Amino acid sequence: MSTGNGSAGQGGRAPQTPRGHDQPTARREWGYSRGWRLFTVIILRWLLRLLMGHQWQGKGNIPRSGGVILAPNHLSYADWPTVALFSYEYGHRYPVFMIKSPVFEVKFIGHLLYKVGQLPVYRGRGDAALVLKQAEQALAAGACVIVYPEGTASRDPDLWPMVGKTGAARLALTTGAPVVPIAHWGAQDILPYGSKKPKLWPRKTVRMAAGPPVDLSAYAGQRLSASTLRAATADIMADITALLAKIRQEAPPAEVWDPGVGGRVPALDRTDDGAPAPSGASRPEGSAGPRSPDPQSPDRQSPDPQSPDPQSPDPQSPDPQSPDPQSVGPPDALGAGPA
Prior knowledge:
This protein is of the alpha/beta class and 339 residues long. It has one domain (53-334): Glycerol-3-phosphate (1)-acyltransferase (3-Layer(aba) Sandwich). 26% of the residues lie in helices and 12% in strands. It has helices at 34-51, 79-90, 109-115, 130-140, 167-175, 187-190, 226-248, 325-328; strands at residues 53-57, 68-72, 95-100, 119-121, 144-146, 179-185, 205-210, 256-258, 263-265.
């Protein structure tokens, strides 16, 4: 099984680990080392399979090659190993996560993350927007990029997916890469959010499913305004929620939890900063709009049974390919889940 897709940077070499006074300087070109990726597979693959059980579905929905965005719900810090194993072992794709930059400052761990092509997301820095460029480079090179649309673990009292951030939608509409929704349930039993002590015994099983790529055709050719990105994000979150409803065999709540207001709001009924939108706020013309997920038919195609926040961009920004560093916002909006 391959540990990568296509060449890594120039000649397969990973860029040197950035250095700086307070935190590393973001590298400007994406790449990875095949040798280091193989090392992580040898060390982690069997360890993760030993620590947790899995029930997987939807293998045929994950493309075997080419750039793809996997968009999972976020339950716990135990998400990343479960999603990583699902992506590599089941989907045959080495995962590239967007991870908050402090993790890259940890000795050896940071060096390893750079070597295997993971993407640091910086907060409050002029080079914060570089992660979007690096993610675009990774997708262009055929990588499987993991973006948590919620940006942080769910604060919904019943752990349903929250209002999403716009990073995954922006990447998808900018690059044309498909967004495959991923839903999983069980990681919160291994390591509840906020806990530092994993519960490994008795051995827990994580159920996970991949759905068909989210249909974002309604937004093709539209300017990447804030309203367009929010509508596309709502479609992504609706597909994730529908998959999770099938796994849990429960009906999701009619309204979505918005951490910006600390409560549930109607889909799309919010402003750029998470506050409720004014009554009668308009939606982008041609938008597919939020979909009410049916727990009995969560995706447009049945999965194969065998088988770490940029703010919403300025609507006046004319060039979605070159996001203004000031409009990128904090890491959570970029989908920097693991931290």
